[in-house]
From TrEMBL:
SUPFAM superfamilies: MOP-like, P-loop containing nucleoside triphosphate hydrolases. NCBIfam families: 3a0106s01. Keywords: ATP-binding, Cell membrane, Membrane, Nucleotide-binding, Sulfate transport, Translocase, Transport. GO terms for cellular component: ATP-binding cassette (ABC) transporter complex. CDD domains: ABC_CysA_sulfate_importer. The lineage of its organism: Bacteria, Pseudomonadati, Pseudomonadota, Betaproteobacteria, Burkholderiales. GO terms for molecular function: ABC-type sulfate transporter activity; ATP binding; ATP hydrolysis activity. This is Sulfate ABC transporter ATP-binding protein. Pfam families: ABC_tran, CysA_C_terminal, TOBE_3. It comes from the Bacteria.
Length: 372
């Protein structure tokens, strides 16, 4: 089932929870809605489900408007962060619930229900827990049972709202791999809400980045990671350093003229002396020992910084640095660089060293309203 979200807006009083959101989800796709707390992810999910109505816009399932369709007619399965299992029912009865609630005319026989429930419990690999009660399950097991229950009525759309949000990091990781495999087997059109970028990038076919009720970018995990469309997306997807400077005719200067760094930005070739920001991921910063030139007038091509802290655990050395020229980074900002631990040892770096930082890759954004 394809889902077409067309120009959906929703206000709560004076607050704009969703502003003109449009999005097309292909049949069988697994899409992640990703964004910070309060950006409108759950509201959008609830509107798709029919639990909430949009003030403006439409939701189409397979091209047909759902506006007048009750939540029960939409054939949607849900899984929420807080396991909504019935505490007084066994695992078996929880999974059977949706089937037993069907109108008599289409309700399967108890024998068919039994087979179906065991098939679903097998699918989520928990058949051996059929007789237990929810209180006797781990958090991860409860979420898998919640998913089995949602799948029991063969929904055409599966909506998952932070399904693994309450679980610890290790279980979350296991479950998201498991969810991906399950989706590859079943191909139910699924929308997955999360504020965890790693989760979204690992699980989804496409990621929808939301901010303040709007869609900032839609793309495959690779696309949004490699080509963030806005400073917000860059900052939201992973660690990033922000450098301040000015852009002019295809070049950005970070820091003071003689002690700064020039970045070539052909995409801003028409910009005239505008405030600009460069985003650089910690692993895209090259770190070298700094040797001051005897000729003070000779320009330095890089950012001179002091290594204030080094965490060398495992294969990566995570370095915290403070720029010598405070105008290069935001005032008081620490620069983060990640280099191979072996390189750190080979170079004999130590806390307190002065080093030269040069970005291998940077993304420059010109301040809004300035430049072209
Ligand atoms: N029924 C409501 N009445 C008033 N405001 C609401 C209501 N539901 C949501 N909001 C507000 O709308 C905004 C978006 O809420 P929503 O739950 O969609 O965000 P979210 O992106 O899912 O956040 P989180 O990750 O914290 O769950 C929030 O500021 C929230 O306070």
């Amino acid at each position: 089932m394809s889902i077409d979200i067309r120009n959906v807006s929703k206000d709560f009083g004076n607050f704009h929870a969703l502003r003109d959101v449009s999005l097309e989800i292909n049949s069988g796709e697994l899409v992640a809605l990703l964004g910070p707390s309060g950006c409108g992810k759950t509201t959008l999910l609830r509107i798709i489900a029919g639990l909430e109505t949009a003030d403006r816009g439409h939701i189409l399932f397979n091209g047909a408007d759902t506006t007048d369709k009750h939540v029960r007619e939409r054939n949607v399965g849900f899984v929420f962060q807080h396991y909504a299992l019935f505490r007084h029912m066994s695992v078996f009865d929880n999974v059977a619930f949706g089937l037993r609630m069907k109108p008599k005319a289409i309700r399967p026989s108890e024998a068919v229900i039994k087979d179906k429930v065991h098939e679903l419990l097998g699918l989520v690999q928990l058949d051996w827990l059929a007789d237990r009660y929810p209180s006797q399950l781990s958090g991860g097991q409860r979420q898998r049972i919640a998913l089995a229950r949602a799948l029991a009525v063969e929904p055409q759309v599966l909506l998952l709202d932070e399904p693994f949000g309450a679980l610890d990091a290790k279980v979350r990781k296991e479950l998201r791999r498991w969810l991906r495999r399950l989706h590859d087997d079943l191909h139910v059109t699924s929308i997955f809400v999360t504020h965890d970028q790693e989760e979204a990038l690992e699980v989804a076919d496409r990621v929808v980045l939301m901010n303040s009720g709007q869609v900032e970018q839609i793309g495959s995990p690779q696309e949004v990671w490699d080509h963030p469309a806005s400073p917000f997306v860059y900052g939201f997807l992973g660690d990033v350093n922000l450098f301040h400077g000015r852009a002019h005719e295809g070049e950005m200067l970070i820091g003071e003229d003689q002690q700064g760094l020039r970045l070539v930005t052909p995409e801003h070739s028409t910009v005239q002396d505008s405030k600009a920001f460069a985003y650089v991921r910690p692993h895209d910063l090259e770190v070298q020992r700094y040797v001051a030139s005897a000729n003070a007038a000779q320009p330095v091509s890089g950012i001179v910084a002091k290594l204030t802290r080094a965490m060398v655990v495992g294969p990566t050395a995570r370095l915290e640095l403070v720029p010598a020229d405070a105008t290069a980074a935001g005032s008081g900002d620490i620069i983060e660089a990640h280099i191979p631990a072996q390189l750190y040892r080979d170079q004999g770096f130590q806390e307190g060293d002065t080093v030269l930082l040069t970005p291998r890759r940077a993304r420059v954004f010109v301040a809004e309203g300035e430049g072209i």
